[in-house]
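I am writing to request your help with a piece of structural work I have in hand. What I wish to show you is a protein chain and, alongside it, a tokenised description of its three-dimensional fold. Could you please explain, in whatever detail you think fit, how the structure tokens follow from the sequence? You will find the record immediately after this paragraph.
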Amino acid sequence: MVKQVSIFLENVAGRLYEITKLLGNNNINIRALSLADTSDFGILRLIVDQPDKTVELLKNENYTVSSTDVIAIEIDDKPGGLAKILELLYKNQINVEYMYAFLAKIPEKAILIFRFDDNKKVLNELKNYGVKFIEGEELYKM
């Protein structure tokens, strides 16, 4: 499993900058991010190299922040790579709550971050298909 840090943000100019500057000043490296917003607020989801430190730091700065377990899956970075893993999920009746992707420092590979309603069930069901899961410590170093 991988720890994802989620931050509730007001949708105002400079808020994202403040967080990224705070993390940079504290030597926390962002590996991946996703930002979903409405007109009033947003949810910033981060994969960072030091998730526990990040949560503590942001809480100390009065941000509303939480940590969530997500799953990182390595796929081929080529046309159809995403469809292949989504087909496995569909065939196993696994619903995706949300996902985002980023390119890895692995030639011709991409990493997908998934949130499911039952992460352990997904890990158990997909391990028989040769799916390459990336553990947190490995992902944080990429």
Remarks:
- The first helix runs from residue 15 to 25.
